[in-house]
Amino acid sequence: MYIAPYIILIIIFVELLLSIYTLLFLLSYDKEEINYEIKDYPKVSIIVPAYNEGKNIKNTLERLIDLEYPKDKLEIIVVDDGSKDNTYEIAKEYEEKYNFVKVYKKENGGKSSALNYGIKKSSGEIIVTLDADSIPEKDSLIKMLKYMYYYNADIVVPAIQTISTKKFIEKYQYIDYAIHNFSGIVVDTMNSVFIASGPFSVFKRSVFEKIGVFDEKNISEDMEIALRAQKNNFKVKFCPEVIIKTVPPDNFKSLLKQRVRWTLGFIENYTKYRDIENEYLREVVFGINIVLYILIPLSFSVILYIYGYQLYNFLIYLSSINYNIFYFIQNSLSFNINLYIFQLLSTSQFILIIFSIILLIDFFLFISIYRRYDKSKSWLSIIYYSIIYLIFSVYFNAVFIIVALYYKIFGRNLRWGGIVWNNSLINKLLNKKYG
Question: What is the DSSP letter of 44?
């Protein structure tokens, strides 16, 4: 007895239910217009941690200087985290030209360490974090602050998108970030935003004063600070109106390193805050991540396999009749077409067809909603990138998860930036045995 068809059928049925829910959400979603006038501009400190960002820091600083915001209320702080290139020298040139730009250099201690250093040096009532390889639009800061005051939020998180889509791996990440952004819209409706992303997240200083600064030992400090804020009843909002462009990994090795860090960080932070009072954040968000990054790609692969297998059999049949299309049509109009209709209406085939239709509707609704905010790519480009993503994501995600789980079990003193990660199960056992 083969169990594979039954497993496939269960996956399709579960995903069918989830797709119907997604369809209902997409149909009911309505973009809200934010009408808020800032009468008294607050002092804003933008902190840019930088490590070996010589090729990016100039463009980032140029964009920050061009922000549509009163310069007497703006403070740009660059913290060079022990770079070995010319990051510090380039940043210092801007400090000499603009009195609202400040540049500091410290020993390498990791991104969190650099952010905390910048927070201590800052004077603004609003703190903005910005990765040195990311760039905002001129109106990004104004929009984020309007969003913050309109919703009376304590932290506001922007959408993120890739700067370049020239390479295959960058096209893949374009859709991946689009899904991240869509996930942000979904979890925001449940007041469960769980990441304050490095590119241009906006914080009220009171957040740090009450719960402390970034955890310098955490490899996903942006997730940890958001979950800690949620636990302490601070309001975290996602702002899809603002899209910050970032430089993505341009090869699979760099992408693997980034996604393994993300996966390990998700596991550790979800475990750390599993007792959080927000039940949506505790229970639903974990499920949403499984659906978006595992079930949907897996379901697409299953459908691709089934239809591909049927197409393969059809081509084998055509070859057996020497590709005589007239013979095929003649036979299809008699007994064979009836047999096919009978197979089509069988339970598994019927569910598969309905699921495929709903998945396609979900897909086009997702694109239409996403393009309300990001019109930089055409429909055809997004469809092309999506095909790349759907074909490869199930395999990429499998590699990311397997490698992350291997590190979680056997990893010893792994290094990300200035952070040494040694929180594997084998290290815990050894520390317990010999500690």
Answer: E
pLDDT in tens, 372-397: 777 778 888 888 888 888 778 878 88
pLDDT in tens, 142-197: 999 999 999 999 999 999 999 888 899 999 999 889 888 888 888 888 888 999 99
Q: How far is CA 366 from CA 22, 123, 185, in A?
A: 9, 41, 11
Q: How many degrees, rounded to 5, is the angle at CA 231 between CA 225 and CA 233?
A: 105
Residue spans per domain, the chain = 34-251
Angle at 260 between CA 256 and CA 266, to 5 degrees: 145
Rounded to an integer, what distance in angstroms lies between the CA atom of residue 109 and that of residue 420? 10
Q: CATH top-level class for 34-251?
A: alpha beta
321 vs 410: CA distance, rounded Å: 56
Among all chains, which residue has been given the structure tokens 């374009």? 174
Q: 43 and 12 in contact (C-beta within 8 Å)?
A: no
pLDDT surpassing 60 at residue 263: yes
- Smallest CA-to-CA distance from 141 within 89, 53, 70 is with 70
Residue 190, judged by CB atoms within 10 A of its CB (0-12, 13-18, 19+), counts as: middle
Phi, psi for residue 97 in degrees, rounded to 5: -90, -30
CB 391 within 8 A of CB 374: no
Q: Which two structure tokens, joined as six digits, stand for 218?
A: 């955490």
360 vs 184: CA distance, rounded Å = 21
